[in-house]
Amino acid sequence: MDVTSFRTPGLGDQTYLLSHDGQGVLVDPQRDIGRFLEAAAARDVELRFVVETHLHNDYVSGAEQAALRTGAELVLPAAAAPAYRHTPAFHLEDIPGGAGLTLRPIHTPGHTPEHTSYLVLIDGEPAALFSGGSLLVASAGRPDLLGPERARSLARLQHRSLRRLAALPPGLALYPTHGEGSFCTATGAGRLTSTIGAERDGNPLLAIDDPEKFADTLLADPMPIPAFYRHMGPANLLGVPPMPPVQVPDLDEPNGHVVDLRPRHVQARGMLPGSYGIELDDDFGTWTGWLLPRDEPITLVAEPAQDVTEAVTQLARIGIDTVEGVVRDLGRAAVQTYRLTDLDAFVKLLLQPDAQLLDVRMPGEREQTRLAGAVERFLPDLFTQGVPAELDPERPVLVACASGRRAAIAAGLLAREGYRPIVLSGAGVPDVAAALHDPDAA
User: In this entry, which stretches build a coiled coil (predicted)?
Assistant: First the structure.
């Protein structure tokens, strides 16, 4: 038996391909299924099953399309009841695959009500556990994505589900779908894979015996929920069309919302007024899906030789198929600017008597480190609630986050609203706090 993992860093998720004796099991595939099918073909593996642990809230699934393309058997939790053909997985009702391979569904509600983990048996012996969004490495799937009204009930269910999985053999390999960087984790997952024994020994959530205390822990400090999440579950319930083409045409003029994915130092020198400045990185799709209106035309702005297929792919993973093309030359229209600066210069500006600082980090991050006098507004809230009234447009606005990425995105909004943003790039608020305590910082 062999397990190949496919990491999608921007979403903090993993897809898995288990192969045994020429048969394959594809677990929780994302929409860009080509990379999984190519890997199976390269290993001379024929897909026997395509398996989903739950109706995903953070991406649109490629499971149905993978099964249709390969003829594999599509398996989903029985309680999911999606609107397309599939094999329902019932608790502890084995699904034989041949050549000694068997799937044993284990109902593990908590992350979602229908959530099901899959124990893979080889010749009757436990070989691997695919736990989806149930038991994670040093964590568990968060229970509040379906709304605060159901969060506590789901948290109690998650308590029971984790213990159900922890009772499996200690040497069993654990392969969760959600991991570090995912907004689907409750307490900040660590490594990507583990074993049941390692989680028994080291997962702090398994040390909490009382279901109510467990729920208190999971719900104490929830991360924000990206705005596009509310569209993922319904899409996965009804079925997702095939992946769109990732090659888009070059345009002379933009249409719809404009997303500038050039490096931030290029954006700072000049953007199209009103555009969104979201530098291309692993989380480009997450921020674009979070901040832009849904289902409206998008034009990308890129450098002349910049490849935009990664950007189009990331958007398609969350069901955004409205990219109309790319503009590569803004000419004289690039008149919206902002300023980038390093830590030393930023601290000196912050020590000026008329300085004003905007912190766009998440609330949980601010609880760890705060700067006195900072105006605080999480980046997505800046777009939905507007620029805080405390900020004076007549004075420069110093903008910081943890690294400069979110601050640069915020700078585009501030600039189009008539402010003069100065972005701390390559460092963050904790670095500023440390510098201010250094007697040589001034």
Answer: none
Long-range contacts of 212-215 (CB under 8 A, 24+ apart): 212/156, 214/155, 214/156, 214/158, 214/159, 215/143, 215/152, 215/155, 215/156, 215/159
Beta bridge partners of 107: 116
| Model confidence pLDDT, tens digit, residues 194-207 | 999 999 999 999 99
pTM score: 0.94
Decide: helix, strand or coil at residue 152: helix
CA angle 326, 328, 331 (to 5 degrees): 130
Assess whether pLDDT exceeds 50 at residue 188. Answer: no
- What is the rounded end-to-end Cα distance, in angstroms, of the chain? 60
Which secondary structure element, helix H or strand E, spans residue 15, and what is its range? strand 13-20
Question: What are the pLDDT digits (tens) for 331-349?
Answer: 999 999 999 999 999 999 9
Q: Which segments within 217-366 are labelled E, that is strand?
A: 257-260, 276-277, 298-301, 323-327, 339-341, 357-359
